[in-house]
Please model this.
Amino acid sequence: MSAIRVLIVDDSAFVRQVLTEILSSDPGIEVVGAAPNPIVARDMIKSLNPDVLTLDIEMPRMDGLAFLDKIMALRPMPVLMISSLTQKGADTAVRALEMGAFDCVAKPVIGLVEGLPAMRDEIVSKVKAASTAKIRARAGEQVRPIQRPGVSYNSSEKIIAIGASTGGVEALQELVMAFPSDAPAAVVTQHMPAMFTASFASRLNQLCAVTVKQAVSGERVLPGHVYIAPGGFHMELARNGANYVCRVHDEPAVSGHRPSVDVLFRSVAHAAGPNAIGVILTGMGRDGAMGLLEMRSAGAPTIGQDEASCVVYGMPKAAKECGAVEAEMPLNKIAEHVLKRCETLAARGVRV
Model:
């Protein structure tokens, strides 16, 4: 196999040098160029045709977000954001992920000289993963909430459980924006750093008809709401009398992750059984596969995002291979399928 061709874009000469050394240390990666700003990078992309771009956010002449917007519109490609992420930067990073960036790596705010080389394994692994991703041009049409006249989903007995990882920020935005304001309650685990999840929930809340928030342990799970697992914490669904509630805790990582999709799905299988629907979206690895199988075994319908619409067909593939996925479909069909399934089973007298 030929080496992965990488172009580095960062206004710091020191960072460009260190990233070049880090990436060049792996025989499977070739750094084909390093640009100090997006204006220079634009011409280098045309002449060098890189497989992956690493991109800073705060740069002169054009910021990284504006450049990312142009890339995704004109020449979609895997972009790994590498930037110092303060709280303000986290908001920007979430926006970058929504726009189609493959992933984000946080530069150390303090101790850059020692800290950046220490992140070698993370940076190299994410560049390699990015090189295999399927990046598509963004759809021009904005997703609107699905309206089904005469149908109400305003029942706390319906639970939608969703798991996602790489590519999931963009996928979740498309999925949740299609939910009407009275959609069944949804609980979501998305693999994200701790500083990202509050910004992600806030951003979705601004865009969606449903209320989206970062989950708080002990709060009641209500229809018309979407609860995002906090970064660094597992989230589970539990029963408190007749009501569903969120349980948030920091027990050890499961399937290599905290939050873990497996933890969420297993709790939903136990607490809701056939009253839930499980959805597994784009992402690397196997997290969520066995938990989704437990949901299906408990009588819950289960859906996997299909390979063609995934950025990374890892988690849905693992779930399909172990028999956890009842139906597989494109991302843009999932919301409608979930809502129709709720409606059909409710009409039969089945608590979904």
